[in-house]
Structure formats: C-alpha cells, structure tokens
Amino acid sequence: MTHALLYSRAPLGIDAREVRVETHLAPGLPAFTIVGMGDTAVRESRDRVRSALVNSGFEFPQRRITISLAPADLPKDGGRFDLAIALGILIASNQLGKVDTDQLEFAGELSLNGQLNPVSGILPCALACQASERSLMVAKENADEASLTGVETLAANQLCEVAAHLTGQAPLPGHHSNPPCEQTLQGGCLSEIRGQAMAKRILEIAAAGGHSLLLSGPPGAGKSMLASRLPGLLPPLRSRQALEVAAIHSLKQPRDSQLFYQRPYRAPHHTSSATALVGGGSYPKPGEISLAHHGVLFLDELPEFDRRVLEVLREPLETGEVSIARAAQQLTFPARFQLVAAMNPCPCGFLGDPEKSCGYRCEKAKRYQSKLSGPLLDRIDLHLDVPAVDAHELLGDKQGETSAIVCQRVREAWQRQWQRQQRLNRDLSPDDLEPLLRPHRDWLASVMNRLGLSARALHRSIRVARTIADLAQSEEVERDHLREALSYRQNIGQASSG
Known about the structure:
alpha/beta, Ribosomal Protein S5, domain 2, Rossmann fold, 2 domains, 4-stranded mixed sheet, about 40% helix, about 15% strand, disordered C terminus, ATP-binding, Magnesium chelatase-like protein, MCM_dom, Mg_chelat-rel, DNA binding
C-alpha cells in the first residue's frame, strides 16, 4: 500500500470542517511535501513528524512523500494534523499492516520524541466528530474537554500508543470525564455592598431581563463591585449553552470544568484594541465580546476606551453576533452578552461636588461624556447615576439582601418569560411589544416627545417595563412599570450637570 486516508478537523469559527489527510508514497528522490493551504505551523509538521517517527522506533521512508490536506481551499493552522500525518505515513509504508481508520478522527500535535501534545479548539472538533458518528483520538490533556460532548473519546500520551491501538496490540479504553460541577456563587455576595439601594434595584432588573446597564458616579461609589455581583444573580447555564460557551473558549484556552455551568464574566482593560474586543487575526479567533457569550461583559472607565473600539459594540448589541470578514472567508461568532459599563461623570470624577470638583463644571465634563456616541448610549437599556456611599450606611451594621435571595427572584422572572414567550425580554421584537404599548399609546407618545427619545430607546424602555412587571409578578405592564423604566433612560450626568 502506498496510499492512506485519515480524517481530522480544522476549526472554522465555532464550527470544525472535516479535513481529509491523504498520504501518498512514490519512488524517486526523498522529499516531503505538504499541500492544502496550511500555515507555517502546518508546513513545519514535516520536521516534527520525521523526528517523532524515528524516536518512536519506526522507520521514516526514504521516498517521495506527498501529504494532501483537503479541501485545498480551506485555511489550516497549527500542529493539529501532526498525528494524522504520522499515522498516514506509517500506514502507507505498511509499517502497521492493514488497519481500519474509517470510524476515527485524529487531532494532536507531536513532540520530537513522539509525545502527543494538546491542541486548541478541540471542543468544536469533538462536536463535529460526534455529528459524523466517529470516535476521536486526542492527547490526554484534551480528553476531558472532548468527552464533555458525549463523543467516544480515545486518549494517548505517545504516538506508539496510538499505533498499538490501531494494530490491536494494546487497545485504548474509552475516556470518560467526571461530570462538571454545578455553579457556585460568582463575584461575591450582593449583601457585601452597603447602601446603594437604587443601584441594587437596577442590577436586579438588568439580571431579570438580560438588559444592558451603564453606571456613572464618583470614584469609590461601588460601580465595579456592583458589576462583579451581576453573574451571581443570573441562573446557571443550561447544558446546551454551556457547551456553546466552552466551544468558544476552547479556541483560545479551555475553560476549567469547575466553571462549566457558570456564566462568563469578562472585564477587558480600557487599552484593549478593536481586534481584542471583537476578534480577528489571519485565522480569526473570538474576541472579548464572544468570550462573554451568555455572560457579562464589563467595561470599566468606558470613556477611556478608544471611540472606534466602542463603536464595534453597536452591531453585536443589536444582533447578538459579530461577523469578521477576511479576504478568503467570513466568520460569524456568537456574542449574546450582557453589557455592564461604568464611568466617572467627568475627568476628575466629582462633577457637581462643591468640595471635590476640579471646578471646570461644564466644558470638561461635556468633552468627557461626548466620547460616547449617541447611537451607542441609545443601545444601553438602563442608565443610572450612582452617588457616593453615605458614611452612616458604609459604617453601619445593616446588611442588604444576599445574592441568593435576589437570584431566586431573577430565576422566577426568567421562568415567566420562557413560559410566555420562549426568550428573555431583551430579545422581544417590535411586534411582541405592540400589545404592551397599545393601552398606553397616547401617554407614551407625549413622553417620547418630551424626553426626546428615539424609537429604539422607547422600545428598550418597554422591554425594561415588561421585566419590572415580571419581578412584580404582574401579567400586565402598568403605567407605574413604564414610569420606572423610563426614569432609567435619563442621560448620564444630566442630573448633576444641570
């Protein structure tokens, strides 16, 4: 036999395309050629595979070796094809005898001594492999992650172990990982925050409806602490959602199994680039907004982000996904995240405070706040000015509700939404909102004109009102629910700069 065919996978976004690894040995001067649009790491497989074969006790054929990674127009990166290439050479050179690999897929990078190393993006590969009804051969370090999908997983440490399995000399047992742990409390307890009753109320509303939130206030008011408590108020991920999140993180760095059901919490620094936030690269990888899928994206010091970086948030906030276009391909990553942002009202942070303010009450604050565009602010559902904490509340003994108590109310609100409309209130369409605004049409029209609200802002306020009604266990959206929701649409800094 001078030809061998094995199967592997190339991650493409959160999907993984099948790659046919074909090996052909021909007479002639010794040569080793890899074709099929591979990057530098793929082309360097020649040297890794040659050393791994020799150091594992096999013979490297002194013939003309051609490796084809098909389809040829699919970009391929990394060392994930090393194992399939090495086995293809062994099969084509008759060193393993007659073996059957039709029901197996291979993913693993080889060390020079034949050790099998883990690769990134194994979870999308495992999901695709399961759909193809094949088993997956991976390195031991990838086995727990791959087996989360339910695919039959085989794990090995060395190339020679894989060869012994294929020949039947030492079959590898199927790998089964321990079930992921249930969610534990994330980010501390809400009761640790003293005072700030209004901020806690708006945090509960945001959690109950999946709404985006912008907090503005002086330094030390507790904005970052409030944001870090939001994940602890959200119900744990469902199994399907947890697999989606784990598949995205697998493309960068696998998630700890202890965090499997926890909602991700991402807090990138304000110096982050647009690529870091959205994703990209020659072989596009997910950015922070996709890594926050089904979780929370916290942007502290919001005006300090480059304005062009912030503007890339506008489309994902509307659509729940981000598209990255490259010359050869266009990839779409999911980005259904919950945005929580925090900012100071002005550069010094004490706008309106007669004792601490820098004195440039209007102009500096206006320039600072103008770094945030109107269209971006329009897409944030809830706006709140967070005052400094009162000294008596800070030093007093009174504690507020715990995260567990608030989380139970949030869970009940989520259950009402899923039973009524099979989605959260933040995802309600304009057609879904029509019955809610019909009884209040004239009043809402006058409020819209008086406050200068856009149609988008009004619709977002109605969605928030629906959430407030759910927390109050009300089937109907009342005028009081709408009033409260609209009170959270004021422009940040408006109250203190007026």
